[in-house]
Amino acid sequence: MYISTLNVREYMCKAKDAKTGSWKEGSLFVNLYGDYHTMKVVESIGDMILLVPYEVLKETVCHATEAFSDNGTRIWENDIVLSKSGLVGIVKWNDDIGKHVYVFPYDDDTELMIPIENELVRIVGNVFDNPELIANPNAANGGCCVKTEILIEGGKCYA
Questions:
Q1: I want to staple 54 with a disulfide (CB 3.0 to 4.6 A). Which of 24, 65, 66, 115 is the partner?
Q2: How far apart are CA 73 and CA 17, in angstroms?
Q3: Which among 73, 113, 68 is positioned nearest to 93, based on CA atoms?
Q4: Does an H or E element contain 8, and which?
Q5: Which residues share a beta bridge with 13?
């Protein structure tokens, strides 16, 4: 089976391994028992490939975007990003426009959404590994509110 690279979001995912908590990347599939797995290509020999399934935590599944950060790292859903203009936001999928967007808090009730291809950003964390960067995870806007005072020193992010 050949998978087109045109629809990256549908086929490339990452999620936390249910046993180790480490991130695993691959194609997402759900078995008959409802367990979530990612498949990772281990080796490709001619037309044959060896895949290893990892059981992952459903709540940590992040789909790939087609964008990369300012240092060439792939941007994933639920990444926390810093724009060149100093805005801090979270990467989300927007069903209305069928694209990934940066969601920046504008004020207590509204958000600014920018399609992901508009500007390069720096990834400063993600909502699972860096919950301290989220100002109010129970916010009415679905927890997209992030702290606006973030200090970056020596490549590390501090809230």
A1: 24
A2: 21
A3: 113
A4: helix 8-11
A5: 26, 63
